[in-house]
Amino acid sequence: MKYMLIAGEASGDIHAAQVIRELRHRDRSASFIFFGGDMMAEAAGIRPFVHYRDMAYMGFSEVIRNLGKINANLKSARRLLRMWEPDALILVDYPSFNLKVAAEAKKLGIPVFYYISPKVWAWKEWRVPTLKKLVTRMYSILPFEVDWYRKNHQWNVKYVGNPSVEEMEHALRHAPSRADFLKEHKLRDRPIIALLPGSRLGEIKNNLEIMNKAVEQFPQYRGVVAGAPGVDPEFYRAYTSLPVLHGCTTDLLANARAAIVTSGTATLETALAGVPQVVCYRSNGSKIAYNVMKRVLSVDHVTLPNLITDSTIIPEMLMHQCTPDAVAEQLTPLLRDTPARRAMLEGYKRMRALLTDASPSKAVADDIIATLKRIKRHLVK
């Protein structure tokens, strides 16, 4: 069968690559075309039709500046659906773009499988009727979403487990020793504070300088930046002089005393690695924007471990609250064996207990193939 996939950012590239591998294992005739990144390319054995570097725009001003590219990518995706006629369209998160492509697939009678449900429970709940109309099967990676969809929208979505659990456990098992890590990256033996400023250029621009200034307040520690896939190492130099390591974020976390993390999937990965963290989300940093955001959001937290446990495990420094001094103040007790550090690690254990050990990529691949077979049998009848 023919599968078209769309992942618009680094985390989606990783998750979609695992699904591609599982589909190839189950469907020996599988062929792929995709919008995504290097991980998907490795799994599929072909280059992306469009790389997510040319898709991952965030924030109103960045989207407006790149509207021409976004529209060109959308036209390409729609044209590809019509010309290639895949048996299935598999969408990974990235809702603003992916829902438009899903609408085209619906017109063409192509089944749509949505892996990693959009966070409509946080904001834009009005999207749910559109999702129900366009999506053949919705796959959730957060356990509380299943009840939310059923209770609020009478829609049965499938919880498949969380891909970060599987990915982090595998990566941590293969992480190097501290001595090997320090030697490989030419780092002196000082306790490390990992800085994870995000995978998008806008995120890095808005958050890394704040993180850098916060770490400067701890001269006895070494700040080390996790470089994002596809981001030029030179881009970071405008915001920090700290070492930037690419392709080894899990190794960095495995050797870090604490971390400062931009809100997103990385907060969950950091928690799964057992590293205490402070979460940043600077954006434009204005108090007005913060107040608007608080009114728009329908949840009390933005950080995944906090959302999963419905409690404040991790301090969230958002918008105007995200200053170097405020971040440093929250970070201070996490660097030593304090009640705050122990409480956060206990919170991580509660979070982990709520996530299953199931392999999401296997569950998704199995369900896609089973659903396509049912559809084909129905058409034959």
What does this structure look like?
- With 381 residues, this protein is α/β, with parallel strands linked by helices.
- 49% of the residues lie in helices and 15% in strands.
- It has helices at 10-26, 38-44, 60-65, 67-84, 95-108, 128-134, 143-153, 163-173, 178-184, 201-215, 249-254, 265-272, 287-296, 304-309, 324-331, 339-354, 360-380, and strands at residues 2-7, 31-36, 50-51, 88-92, 112-115, 137-140, 158-159, 192-196, 222-227, 244-246, 258-262, 277-281, 316-318.
- Strands 3-2-1-4-5-6-7 form a seven-stranded parallel beta sheet, with helices on both faces.
- Helix 1 (10-26) packs parallel to helix 2 (38-44), helix 1 (10-26) crosses helix 17 and helix 10 (201-215) crosses helix 15 (324-331).
- The radius of gyration is 21 Å and the shape is globular.
**If helices are DSSP runs of H or I spanning 4 or more residues, what is the number of helices?**
17
Beta-strand segment tally = 13
The gross shape turns out to be globular
Uncertain spans: 288-298
> What topology, given as strand order, has the largest sheet?
3-2-1-4-5-6-7
